[in-house]
Amino acid sequence: EVLLLQSGGGLVRRGGSLRLSCAASRFRFSIYAMSWVRQAPGKGLEWVASISDTGSNTYYADSVKGRFSISRDNSQNTVDLEMNSLRVEDTAVYYCAKVVWFSVTWDAYEIWGQGTTVAVSS
Amino acid sequence: EIVLTQSPGTLSLSPGERATLSCRASQSIGSSYLAWYQQRPGQAPRLLIYGTTSRATGIPDRFTGSGSGTEFTLTISRLEPEDFAVYYCQQYGYSSCTFGPGTKVDIK
Questions:
Q1: In the prediction, which pLDDT does B96 show?
Q2: A3 near A97, Cβ under 8 Å?
Q3: B37: distance to nearest CA of chain A, Å?
Q4: How far apart are CA B56 and CA A86, in angstroms?
Q5: In B26-85, where do the E strands start and end?
Q6: What sign results for the dihedral spanned by CA atoms A9, A109, A60, A24?
Q7: CA A48 to chain centre
Q8: Closest by Cα among A108, A90, A91, A85 to B59
Q9: Which residues of A touch B45 (CB under 8 A)?
Q10: If exposure means fewest CB atoms within 10 Å of the residue's CB, which of A89, B74, B79, B88 is most exposed?
Q11: How far is residue A92's CA from residue A113's CA, in Å, rounded to a whole number?
Q12: Are A97 and A81 in contact (CB under 8 A)?
């Protein structure tokens, strides 16, 4: 079974930093784009960032551009989200997600991680 | 940015009934870049439909997606107890990704 196992997250003060990690298993990680999607408490889903299969292209939502950085290590089958200058409004459950088709960055999300909570206090 | 609107906000139905959920885009996204997800409380979203009409692996055939341009529909032919959840549409065309606000299907 294809699996995405997330780690990181927690409670941080406004202006602080956190790093989320997502470890993939049981699929050929290096040929799939990966993304992060978040969900604020009681709210809907919000796309945060995406990275192409090779890692050469990255994309960000306007709400996090300049503060968050997505990266991947295809030798370790991991994708990370570095979050800096955190704001109270970044409080959410963060999910990593795998696209359906290989070598396609913009796609539906077939597999989701279990989610990890980020709470930013004021 | 392409904005997605979902209606109704809440749909109250009984098991065995048919559910029709709507997703409208602020501009045309063609016929291939629309997905639907189910989310139960405390769980990650689950992909149901991608490419407007294709069912994801393991999704029962009571779930059907249709539409094109700016109007899309998810139909659940006969609601099972496990189908009561929140449903989101997502567009992924034009090198972008946005989600709709969701439709909650609850038990009448």
A1: 86
A2: no
A3: 9
A4: 35
A5: 34-39, 46-50, 54-55, 63-68, 71-76
A6: positive
A7: 7
A8: A108
A9: 37, 45, 95, 109, 112
A10: A89
A11: 14
A12: no
Mean pLDDT, chain A, rounded, equals 97
DSSP bridge partners of B29: none
Task: Note whether A44 contacts B90, CB cutoff 8 Å.
Answer: no
Residue B101 has pLDDT above 90, yes or no: yes
- List chain A residues with CB under 8 Å of B57: 110
Amino acid of residue B76: I
Who among A44, A50, A114 is closest to B101 (CB)? A44
Question: Which residue in the block uniquely carries the two structure tokens 């929140």?
Answer: B86
Q: What's the pLDDT tens digit per position in A63-83?
A: 999 999 999 999 999 999 999
Is the pLDDT at B94 greater than 90? The verdict is: no
pLDDT at position B31 is: 80
d(CA B60, CA B80): 11
